[in-house]
Amino acid sequence: MDSGSRLANVFKSPRKLLRRVTKAVMRSYHYKLPKYDMPIRFRPWFLVFTSLIMLLLALLGFTNFSHALPLNDKLLHFLCLMIATGVFYFIFDVEEEARRIWFWRHAGLIFTGIICFFFGDIVSEIVQSMLPYKEFQMGDILANLCGSSIGLYIAYYLEKYYRHRREIARLYRPLDTDEEALISDSEEDRAEPLLPTHNPAAGKSATGKIRLEDVWDEREDVFDVGEDSDDEQGGSRAPGQVPAPKIVVDNPW
Question: Which domain holds residue 76?
Answer without folding.
Answer: 19-195
